[in-house]
Give the backbone structure.
Amino acid sequence: MDSQKDRPEIWSVDHLLAQNIIIPSYQRPYKWGNKNIRELILDIQKSIEEGRKYPNFKYRVGTVILYRESDTEPYEIVDGQQRLLSFLLLKLYLKPDFTCRLLSTTFSDKVTQKNLHDNACTIREWFSSVDEPTKEAFGEALNRTLEVVVLTVNELTEAFQLFDSQNTRGRELYPHDLLKAYHLREIHDKYDMQRAVLKWESKSPKAIRELFDSYLYPLWNWSKRRKSGRFTAAEIDLYKGIEESSGYTYAHRANKAMPYFLLSEPLISGRDFFEMVDHYMQMLHSIKQELVENPDLRDVKKLLIDDPDKVDRVNTPEGLDKACKSSSTGMNHARNLFFCALLCYYDRFHNFDPMAVKKLFTWAMMLRVDMNHLGFDSVNRYAIGLGDRDRYTNTEPVISLISTARRHTEISGLSLELKRVNGEAETDKWQGLYDDLLRLNGYK
């Protein structure tokens, strides 16, 4: 392999666009849309604002992998085509007489043609409302502020190997990986950045992923009575936060609220994101520790664990997690709904009223009692109160009620319905659980 690969170069966007670059036939279509273009423009706008504060400020906008067989051949773009073509559209708007090798490319794919046309329109519309100095500042940013890390190799197989390595061995980056990169870029103090990285790296990647997938993202949606889904890169804007310097009222409120977070409220971007992740991982650990240790919650602990012989041996949050694992997917859904409700409750009120905990447990487990087959779609409907009384014994949007309650007694005093029409669980398998819930609430 050529030693160039081991020496990545830093090029300005203008320098990159001016190179002898072609788009090979193996490249996928250009799929960036309106949202991507607007995010790119706002990113550049932010770099311009930062450049006014800090001398010689540079803003990295990603990595590009190029393949070139020899110095006399053009570069082939292996990774970075989406961003490269988007920068080209922007450059052409700002400097219509700009020429480069890329402009000789023939795009036969209909998706590519449509997106190039639509994105050019988006750029034109966005800049139609700005003045000439702003346009000039964007042009200057492409030339001086925005930088690209360029990796060049002279063997195509090595280019694809490098592409896989850059993309975490071929898989898409998890949404929380993208959020980590975004918020690190928002931190300008070296010590704060090191501290944030240490906090992040001390945690299990699986645990961070579970925090967002199973708790934070569903609760954000359910608290607003919206159905939730899988947390993907398309939803990361929810956790990008807001810059304190924006001047927005809610940004001032969020900043003044530190170090207190709320699941349903925004945060200040940068350092606070890492504090937030740490905060909720500790909170999850604490509420599970309380379930393990609090004698007033022994009945709940007992019902959470499948094997009654394990109850007295479970004395740590990790042990509780292990003991709660069930071969029943539906039961796991019901347990997770309970932990979500409990996290939401503790997040708002910071107390462990045993009556409130028992009410939340009963609410979550009655879903298991009500359903023959329990999947996430049923959990979604139940969590936001969309269920009809023919299928669900309770139809209150409990997560939303927690998020808007003034006092914790509104939850401990919540009126739940436990009497099913025929007095029995939907299936015999969960009759024992139903009887236990009736006893827990004083009906037996």
